[in-house]
Structure formats: structure tokens, C-alpha cells
Specification:
The chain is an alpha/beta fold. Helix content is 29%, strand content 19%. The structure holds alpha-methylisocitric acid and iron/sulfur cluster (SF4).
Length: 637
């Protein structure tokens, strides 16, 4: 046998197709997760499928993104989610219980299983040896209804780890090193499978930091083998029964190999405004810092917070820095309280935030105008902090806290000996905020508040499309540009007409108005269009505004399938120079669309400038049907 770990797990779950790079395969999904910001739409779609109960081994609905509850909207959403969970046999993790990925790692993840989540950082589960993939809510809804998940078989890249991390160098620096080398597009169509002698030097939470931020590489997912360290973690969590040893065969085959000597990694930091804009901390040292945030699904484990708390012991945060700390889960919060870590943080002057996504998604704790914010998070896209001109840097908790103490970007190695953080004898179950569904769900009523609006629909695909270019954007446009989040907009996630007012708001506040005036039209994009989150709203709201097609140089994986699922054609330029030729407000016409869906080729007439160009859209048979139906919901119905 010469199977790599990825193929071993996929093979066991294969229900359709063959595992050959580029081929479409159908995978059986063991577990699903949703979070509140994507969950309401996912469950609204699930409801229309008419299933009696979820058809998975485990489905969990987390509330972690929008926990501010300013006004009735969020609590309405939470109540809807809780009632849907009880109705359909889904475990419900209440607000305050923690960030979905951290809690899932602690309580539910299992080596060798498949997990589909309506959040792009679902690959965190890869730290436990799972195939964990982030997708749009509609894919999760289908998986909950027992349908397979269809995907293009990715390449499998072996990341050969050797050596051992030096003191003060962390898992965060490892993934920043990969982002520095490979860029935010470097992982598109790939799975990063970690192996080699360096693996056993990393704990499960460290591995999870690395697989979590594999999302920033654009990867389909990332995975570590399940070994003695995995067993150790599951035993501490009281879940040894969930353990299964699973690793690649000795002579496993890979599509490519990346070598990484852990001993060579240095403390690194990503500069504004992209996670791949990486420099060594030394190069940036001395820069004045206004704010430091510790937390997020990347770096909020017990180990991370204990390290931070120990460094802070008997010290004081610099007077010019505001330090916010959000523990990743109730379990972490419970343990740092017991171990007097929380006390040392409070005494040092930290502001303790709720166990939730919080500042990572712009839900409070925004930096001041032009402020420098150092965050242990995974994304530093422009405006994501909630302050349009803030400068957001991404680094390890060690670098962040050293900088919080000194008031300037500081290499943590200047702090002397690193603190010793011991594992507890046992992690507490911490299930007071978890609600298991009742066995008899027959009289559970689904509760909808006025914020829960029905989903808009799109008619079948017409054979001719005409419209004007409503916006033309460059490379690496993120879903945060297309459909921003933050405390003002996030509460509108269950109300598509209301949220659609904010499409492209950070780059063109008049976009929505113009789209409505013109009855829709085209979006022109550059490379890696739609990178970042899994939010379907970045497709659903443009669909509501009448967007017919996005014509771009290339697309990010999750966003591309969200576009198809909501009846928007993701068309790619055949010749990149056609991107340069096209102008804002040009009138475009595409004829013979139905034939184009079949052949993958379309001719676009630029009626304003008087020329034609070719675009392509390679769809598998299922996607062709979805595109013709005007979206997946129409088809499933
Ligand atoms: C993010 O980190 O961008 C989010 C918020 O978690 C998104 C999901 C969302 O927009 O609700 C993601 O990563 O998919
Ligand atoms: Fe939440 Fe941030 Fe993680 Fe997204 S990246 S799940 S917003 S903590």
C-alpha cells in the first residue's frame, strides 16, 4: 500500500467517483458544524429539504460569531437556531460556550472522520487527523440531509517537518512561514498533509493552529496524522474512546513535497493587509502598538492562554496599549480561572472578553483611527477590525504579549526564559452551555422572530444575459470586501434584503444602489476572487441584487461553489488581457448560455466597446444542473 493519509480517509468515505486529481468525487460526511452567522441561512435551506432529522453521526450548531445581542436580531437568531437544533437532532452550543473550532476540537472531533463546516476555518479539525472542510451553508445543509459532499479531488502536498521549534517560536510562526513562501493562493486545489519526524514534537492545539490557518493558503484542508500525541489529548479530554491511530503509509505518494525544518523557523508577523505579507518580527521590531488582541480560533487554546498569563505574571501592560483577551472556550476559561492565570491577566491590566470570535470579526474592540493592532488571529484584511484605516498585524501570542508589555513590536526572545506550561491532569467536560437534542422531537416548535426573513429565489437560467459592469476590482478580493461583517452588518445575516445594502460597501458604498437601479449586471474580478470566508451572503446578497455573473481571472474554492449554488455564473477570462480591456459600466451580452454551460465556453460581446472575448466555466454534471436550475435550492426542491 502506498496511500497518503488524505486518500486513506477519503477512500473510506468515497460514495462516487475516483480519487484522481481534478476528478469530481462524492464523500460521505460524518460530522457537520455550523456557526450562527452562517447557520441561520444553512438551516433555512435545510428546512426546505423536508428531512425529519439530520442524517449524520453528529451535527453541532454553535453560536460564537454574533453574541453582542444589541437589539432583538441576534437573540432572535439564537432562539431560532436553538429550536431548529432541538427539532432536527442537532447538538446546540450556546453563546458563551466558545468558538466553534476550539470547542469542536475539545469535545467532538474524531480522528479518521470527515467534518463539513459552514466556516472556512473548519480545517482546524485536521489537527486531530480529520478531513475537515469549510464550505457554504448549503453544502452543510445537504450533508445534514444525508447527501454526499461533492468536490474536485485536490492535490495532496506533503509538508515534511523536521527538527523542533526553538524556545519562543510557535506553531503560528510555522504557518506564517508557509504563507510567506506560498502566498494566499498557494494552496488552492490542494490538501496540506503534514508528516515527518517533526510532527511528534507538536501538540494537538499546536497542530490545530497550523491546520486552521491553512485556510489562509486557500487550501481545501490540512491534516496531521493521529498518533500518540493525539491519544494524549483525547485522554486528557476524557475521550480516549474516540481515538484511532491513522497515518500515511511509509511509501505514500504525494503530488508535491514542501520541506520545513522547525528548528529554522523564527518569530514571524504578517503585515497589513494580507496574511501572506510576512516578515520576521525582528524586521518590524520597534513599531509602536496601540492594541493587542489574544484569541480567535487560531490561538485561544489553554496552552496559548497559560503562556500569555505566565508572561504577564507580576507585570503591567504598557500604558499606551489596550490588551484584550478572549479565551477560546468555556473549558479554557474554566481552567485559566482555576490555575490563577486569569488573575494574573486581570492584575496585569488585560480586558477579558467573552469566549467568542469577538474582535476577529469586528464585533467590538476595534482599534483607534490609524491604530496599530497586533492580533493572534488569522485574517488582517483591510477594514476587518471595524476601523477602516487601522493597521492589523498577525502574530503568535508570545510576540503579541511581549509587544503589549513594551508598547512596541517586540521579539519575544528578548523576554529571557520562556514560561513552562504544564498540561492539566484532566480537562473538565465543561458542558453547561451544551444542549443535546431531545430523543422525542415531535412537539418541538421552530421559533422565528421578525429578523428571520425567507430566502430570495432566482428563476431558471435564461439563455441570454445582458447587463452592465457594475464594478471592476483587482486581485485577491476577499469576502470581507464583498459582504463585510462587523457589529452593524452581522445582525442582518438572516435578512437578505437588508444585508444586501452593504454589498461591496468597503470599496464602493454606492454599489448596491447602482445594482438595484440597473436591475443587476456583472462583476469583474482579478485573481483569487472571493478569498477568505465561507459566507454565502457574499453570493446570496449579490444574487438578490440581480448579479448575473462574476467574470474574474480566477476564483477561491468556497466562494466559487457558493456562486454556483446561488445561481451566479463564475466565469473565468481565457486571456488575462481581456480583464484590462473591460471598463466600468461597459454593456455586456452573453448569448447561448445553455450551450455554454454544456461546453464550458461562452462568448461575451462588449456592446459598449464593440469587441468579443471568450470566457470559460468548467462545471461538473451536478454543477451544470444547478446552474441551469438557477441555483441549488431550486434543484433540490
Ligand atoms: C471569518 O473568519 O471570516 C468568518 C466570519 O468566520 C467566516 C464565516 C462568516 O462569514 O460567517 C468564515 O471564515 O467562513
Ligand atoms: Fe471566528 Fe475569527 Fe475564527 Fe472566523 S476566524 S471562526 S471570526 S475566530
Amino acid at each position: 500500500m502506498n496511500l497518503n493519509l488524505t486518500h486513506k480517509i477519503l477512500d473510506k468515505h468515497l460514495v462516487e467517483g475516483t480519487l484522481a486529481v481534478g476528478e469530481i468525487v462524492g464523500i460521505q460526511v460524518d460530522q457537520t458544524l455550523t456557526q450562527d452567522a452562517t447557520g441561520t441561512v444553512a438551516y433555512l435551506q435545510f428546512e426546505t429539504m423536508g428531512a425529519e432529522k439530520v442524517d449524520t453521526e453528529l451535527s453541532v450548531s454553535y453560536v460564537d460569531h454574533n453574541t453582542l445581542q444589541s437589539g432583538y436580531r441576534n437573540p432572535d437568531d439564537h432562539r431560532y437556531l436553538q429550536s431548529v437544533a432541538a427539532r432536527y437532532g442537532i447538538v446546540f452550543s450556546r453563546p458563551g460556550n466558545g468558538i466553534c473550532h476550539q470547542v469542536h476540537l475539545e469535545r467532538f472531533g474524531q480522528p479518521g472522520k470527515t467534518l463539513l463546516g459552514s466556516d472556512s476555518h473548519t480545517p482546524t479539525g485536521g489537527g486531530l487527523g480529520m478531513i475537515a472542510i469549510g464550505v457554504g451553508g448549503q453544502d452543510v445543509a445537504c450533508a445534514m440531509a444525508g447527501l454526499p459532499f461533492y468536490m474536485t479531488t485536490p492535490e495532496v502536498i506533503r509538508v515534511e517537518l523536521t527538527g523542533r521549534l526553538k524556545p519562543w517560536v510557535t506553531a503560528k510562526d510555522v504557518i506564517l512561514e508557509l504563507l510567506r513562501r506560498l502566498s494566499v493562493k498557494g494552496g488552492v486545489g490542494k490538501v496540506f498533509e503534514y508528516g515527518g519526524p517533526g510532527v511528534e514534537t507538536l501538540s494537538v492545539p499546536q497542530r490545530a493552529t497550523i491546520t486552521n490557518m491553512g485556510a489562509e493558503l486557500g487550501a481545501t484542508t490540512s491534516i496531521f496524522p493521529s498518533d500518540a500525541r493525539t491519544l494524549e489529548w483525547l485522554e486528557l479530554q476524557g475521550r480516549a474512546n474516540d481515538f484511532q491511530r491513522i497515518e500515511a503509509d511509509q511509501d505514500a505518494e504525494y503530488d508535491d513535497v514542501v520541506e520545513l525544518n522547525l528548528s529554522d523557523v523564527e518569530p514571524l508577523i504578517a503585515l497589513p493587509h494580507s496574511p501572506d505579507n510576512v516578515k520576521t518580527v525582528k524586521e518590524v521590531a520597534g513599531k509602536k502598538v496601540d492594541q493587542v488582541c489574544i484569541g480567535s480560533c487560531t490561538n485561544s487554546s489553554l496552552q496559548d492562554l497559560c503562556t500569555v498569563g505566565e508572561i504577564l505574571r507580576n507585570k503591567k501592560v504598557h500604558p499606551d496599549v489596550s490588551l484584550g483577551i478572549a479565551p477560546g472556550s468555556q473549558q479554557v476559561l474554566e481552567l485559566i480561572t482555576e490555575r490563577s492565570i486569569l488573575g494574573s491577566m486581570i492584575k496585569a491590566g488585560a480586558r477579558i472578553l467573552e469566549s467568542a470570535c469577538g474582535p476577529c470579526i469586528g464585533m467590538g474592540f476595534s482599534p483607534p483611527s490609524g491604530g496599530v493592532s497586533l492580533r493572534t488571529f488569522n485574517r488582517n484584511f483591510e477594514g476587518r477590525t471595524g476601523t477602516a484605516d487601522a493597521m492589523c498585524y498577525l502574530c503568535s501570542p508570545e510576540t503579541a504579549i511581549a509587544s503589549a508589555l513594551r508598547g512596541i513590536v517586540t521579539d519575544p526572545r528578548e523576554l529571557g526564559e520562556p514560561p513552562l506550561v504544564e498540561e492539566p491532569d484532566k480537562y473538565p467536560g465543561s458542558e453547561s452551555l451544551i444542549i443535546y437534542p431531545p430523543t422525542d422531537n415531535s412537539d418541538v416548535e421552530i421559533i422565528r422572530g421578525p429578523n428571520i426573513q425567507p430566502l430570495p429565489q432566482r428563476p431558471k437560467l435564461a439563455n441570454n444575459l445582458k447587463g452592465s459592469v457594475l464594478i471592476k476590482v483587482g486581485d485577491n478580493i476577499t469576502t470581507d470586501h464583498i459582504m463585510p461583517a462587523g457589529s452593524k452588518i452581522l445582525p442582518l445575516r438572516s435578512n437578505i434584503p437588508a444585508i444586501s445594502e452593504y454589498v461591496f460597501n468597503p470599496i464602493d458604498p454606492k454599489f448596491s444602489e447602482r445594482a438595484k437601479e440597473k436591475n443587476g449586471g456583472f462583476i469583474i474580478g482579478g485573481e483569487n476572487y472571493g478569498q477568505g470566508s465561507s459566507r454565502e451572503h457574499a453570493a446570496l446578497a449579490p444574487m438578490y441584487l440581480g448579479i448575473i455573473a462574476v467574470i474574474a481571472k480566477s476564483f477561491a474554492r468556497i466562494h466559487k461553489s457558493n456562486l454556483i449554488n446561488f445561481g451566479i455564473l463564475p466565469l473565468a477570462f481565457v486571456s488575462e488581457s481581456d480583464h484590462d480591456r473591460i471598463s466600468f459600466e461597459d454593456e455586456l451580452h452573453i448569448g447561448e448560455l445553455h450551450k455554454g454551460i454544456e461546453t464550458g465556453k461562452f462568448t461575451v460581446e462588449n456592446l459598449t466597446a464593440g469587441y468579443e472575448f471568450t470566457v470559460w466555466c468548467e462545471l461538473n454534471n451536478k454543477e451544470k444542473k444547478i446552474a441551469l436550475a438557477g441555483g441549488r435550492l431550486n434543484m433540490v426542491k
